[in-house]
Amino acid sequence: MAAIIGMSFKEIYKKKAFVLGAILSLAYLFLYGTGLRLLFKDMTRTDLVSNAIMQSQLISVGLYFAGFIVSLLVILTSSGSISSEVDNGIMYSVASKPVSRTEIVMGKFIGIGCIMVIYASLLFLAVIGLNAAMGANLLRVLGIAKIFKGLALFDLIPVILLAFTMLGSVAVNTIGAGVISIILYGLASVGGMMEQIGASVGNASLVNIGIISGLIMPTDTIYRKMFSSMFKIESGLGLDILDITPFGGSVLEPSVWMVVYTVIYVVFIMGCAVRTFNGKDI
Q: What own/partner pairs with CB < 8 Å and gap ≥ 24 does 129-136 have?
């Protein structure tokens, strides 16, 4: 399996999508940092509570679009991880060697996953670092523990998408795997927004739609759990509103059981991918 993991590292670095994504990420951080610098100049004239709320909003915007970039890059780089090699004949030579199909699938999952988790971590820390550098004192109030708890949940998002996209890469072709993953990711985001709106207005049907979409693709649920875990301040301080934002906040905070469900979800999806590939005629 170590050889497959090493091959996955090389494949990722050779793909133009990953290189282009990394370059565009730098452009995004530059644009985001420029906006922060201009906004923080005006925030010096506001009161402390308004200042804290604005800082949480800015961080939510940065992390929301960072998560969007990471998610698209994961889908683009992994949708052909199996199917493209089957189509161009590379898989025939790999599968003929003394390595099981299970090792091929899991090796690619681990290899691509490691790179994407590192990439997601760097982007997350860059967004947090830019806010801290511009004077976001709210981060010092939250503390390192909450920030790293948020980082761990943020890193779970590309793992979810990678597992699902690899299943698609095994079951269908490259384009099909990418399209299905992108659509489900979008539906999860819309469903999450509908759930929060439903919770705000007391509409149980909207809440149920969001819950169902979160069970099918839990990326948005984990993102909202991540943001809530960082900005949920103990009641009594009067700052619970910090974790309610248009870009990832939660009127209805996901429970810790959704994190447990997500881990089981990833294991189940990868089990399906292995089983499907083992039964595939190539």
A: 130/29, 130/32, 130/33, 130/36, 130/62, 131/36, 131/55, 131/58, 131/59, 131/62, 134/33, 134/36, 134/37, 134/40, 135/40, 135/43, 136/40, 136/55, 136/58, 136/59
- CB 104 within 8 Å of CB 274: no
Q: Which amino acid is at 18?
A: F
Residue 32, pLDDT above cutoff 90: yes
Mean pLDDT (whole number) for 95-107: 77
Q: Whole-angstrom Cα distance, residue 73 to residue 31?
A: 19
Question: Which pLDDT band, with edges at 50, 70 and 90, does 45 fall under?
Answer: low
pLDDT score recorded for residue 235: 43
Closest CA to 68 of 175, 209, 176, 188: 188
Q: How many CA atoms lie within 13 A of 214 on its CB side?
A: 25
What tokens appear for 253 in the block? 């905070």
Q: Residue type at 47? A: D
